[in-house]
Amino acid sequence: MRTIWKGAISFGLVNIPVKLFPATESKTIKFNYLHKECHSPINYQKLCPVCNREVSQDEIVRGYEYEKGRFVILNEEDMDNLPTATTKTVDIIDFVDLSEIDPIYFSKPYYLAPSEGGQKAYLLLKEAMKETGKIAIAKVTIRSTENLVCLRVYENTVLMETMYYPDEIRSGQALPELNAPVPLHENEIKMATQLINNLSARFDPAKYKSDYREALMQLIEAKVAGEQIETPQVREPGNVVDLMEALKASLKATENEKNLEKKPRVKKKAAK
């Protein structure tokens, strides 16, 4: 894995030199856009509509639109002189319980590994967080952006996960669809709760996979091999006409599945 940032974890008077690595990778299948006539890849150009010409990267500057059509320009020197103390440190602010943080705050995970001379302090922080069950809330500046992050123990590493600031999370109260009063019957709640219990299981990440990505790769491989493509029938979701009947049918199906799972398998006797 390639290092994307170097710095130090800072808490109290302790500084732990670390390196940052991506902890995830996108498995999304990417496509190139081609010209339909000749199948050549399409190029994207940075064009100035006023000068009517393509501009190079060194001609482009940052501009913040403070009024419609009016911009204030920020150059590299302005960005470098911003008064942030977190350009080279993961500055820990608090240690908290993970259960207190709603998952909506989490954005993207990274691995933190110790740099030269930081192995012992890194291990000490990791073991102390394991012992207390706490995670750290911190700030760090990466690529000109100050991020709110949390540090937590994952497997044998300290994982750093970027977080959204509270003012970046929109309130669901703004959705008008949720404001209309809808009556719920006690039996409906009871049956829905029972259905959730029937479908409950221990979280096993290995059982989840992208069916869409697998089907897309099979389609691509079949096209490359020149095979005939068969399109499977896709079941269209129906409208819920009778909620109670739908709940009853779902409960019956899930209970049958549970009974089959619990039923002991009869061992076949070996032939004499």
Automatic annotation (TrEMBL):
It comes from the Bacteria. Residues 52-180 form the Ku domain. InterPro entries: DNA_bd_Ku70/Ku80, Prok_Ku, SPOC-like_C_dom_sf. Signal peptide: none annotated. It holds the Pfam family Ku. GO terms for biological process: DNA recombination; double-strand break repair via nonhomologous end joining. CDD domains: KU_like. The keyword Cell cycle does not apply. GO terms for molecular function: double-stranded DNA binding. Keywords: DNA damage, DNA recombination, DNA repair, DNA-binding. The keyword DNA-binding applies. Belongs to the prokaryotic Ku family. With LigD forms a non-homologous end joining (NHEJ) DNA repair enzyme, which repairs dsDNA breaks with reduced fidelity. Binds linear dsDNA with 5'- and 3'- overhangs but not closed circular dsDNA nor ssDNA. Recruits and stimulates the ligase activity of LigD. Homodimer. Interacts with LigD. This is Non-homologous end joining protein Ku. It comes from Formimonas warabiya. The gene is ku.
